[in-house]
Design brief:
353 residues, alpha/beta, Rossmann fold, 6-stranded parallel sheet, 6-stranded mixed sheet, 11 helices, 41% helix, disordered N terminus
Length: 353
């Protein structure tokens, strides 16, 4: 009898294990800590949305602060060995390691953020965050008192260059006297370096701080000196209640839920996704700490972008060397946006090569 019960118990354990294995396992690879209050934080909000939406149909897990390059390859490989059905790698520098793993494990689905390579089992995806950045430029151009705006930049990749350009174009649209300084910190997340960069820029007369790094440190530096700026990737006003004018909010939730759902129902396909305001992927924090006329103009431009009535990267558009990049009436294609490697005319900083 005891032996019989033991067999039944064993069978029950196997059945439970088999049921558990039916869960779709979803891995996320993060370049920064989930507590950065920026880029990685918002991706992890998306992961949590997947878990909440699908409940016990899925198991999600992540590894944070993974260096781009060989380290990411090891982490991705470990996730595959853990049984991951789909893996999201959430930084540009993960592109080639993700492609390598996709070729090695054709039965696993891979999703790479902000890159441009795909495979039968690998998608690329991104958000048109430059849309919100242009609205920030509109605000900066109207509100600067020194005519000097600035940018704390991470790495010179097309995504970052594109947002520097659109920020400057927005500011110049409202104020032809605006100049912009840029400091490259060569990191996605280092609060000390980010803060120091913002402080240096403010000593040079900058009174509007924008950033493409992931901590609220530049905003906090602006708060301490009575300047203004813009939150990055999430609403960071709690860190700088008097300094933040608005913030870009990265909303990955709809995409993550859709792609995990496609794995569950067997309809997943490789794609190159580039979502924006219209799809709800790009959002903005409330317009605060600004005059009513600035708020009204910012809302007007935001609505025009969302409705497809206005596009910042339209011709004629010249680079800083005077070369025509977009002809009269031409609108930049996604390929041109994702391969942008020049500063637009008017930016005097040396282009990083």
């Amino acid at each position: 009898m005891n032996k019989f019960l033991t067999v039944l118990a064993s069978l029950g354990m196997l059945a439970t294990s088999a049921f558990a294995d039916e869960k779709v396992k979803v891995g996320f690879v993060y370049v920064g800590p989930t507590g950065d209050h920026g880029w990685t934080y918002r991706h992890d909000v998306g992961r949590q949305a997947v878990q909440e939406h699908f409940g016990d149909k899925v198991e999600t897990f992540f590894v944070e602060s993974v260096s781009e390059g060989v380290d990411s390859e090891r982490v991705i490989n470990a996730m595959v060995l853990r049984g991951a059905d789909i893996i999201f790698t959430t930084s540009f520098g993960y592109m080639l390691p993700t492609l390598k793993m996709a070729n090695r494990y054709p039965e696993v689905k891979f999703e790479h953020a902000t890159g441009y390579k795909q495979a039968p089992n690998m998608s690329s995806y991104g958000l048109r965050l430059y849309q919100a950045r242009h609205v920030q430029g509109i605000i900066a151009g109207m509100m600067t008192k020194t005519n000097k705006i600035c940018y704390v930049a991470s790495f010179p990749i097309p995504e970052v260059i594109r947002e520097i350009n659109t920020y400057f174009l927005g500011a110049r649209r409202m104020n032809p006297d605006v100049e912009m300084d840029i400091v490259w910190v060569n990191t996605w997340y280092n609060p000390g370096k980010e803060s120091d960069a913002a402080k240096v820029l403010m000593t040079q007369g900058c009174d509007m701080i924008a950033q493409h790094t992931d901590s609220p440190a530049p905003m906090q530096a602006a708060e301490a000196q009575g300047r203004h700026g813009f939150g990055q990737a999430s609403d960071q006003i709690v860190f700088a209640p008097d300094a933040q004018l608005t913030a870009t909010i990265d909303n990955w939730n709809p995409y993550y839920i859709r792609k995990v759902g496609a794995v569950i129902d067997g309809t997943w396909e490789s794609e190159n996704y580039f979502g924006g305001m219209k799809e709800g992927g790009v959002q903005m924090a409330p317009f605060t700490n600004m005059p009513d006329d600035v708020r009204a103009k910012a809302q007007e431009v935001k609505d025009q972008i969302e409705n497809g009535e206005y596009f910042a990267f339209s011709g004629p558009l010249y680079d800083q060397d005077g070369n025509l990049q977009l002809a009269e009436g031409e609108v930049a294609t996604d390929f041109q946006l994702n391969s942008m490697e020049y500063y637009v005319q008017g930016i005097t900083s040396k282009y990083p090569r």
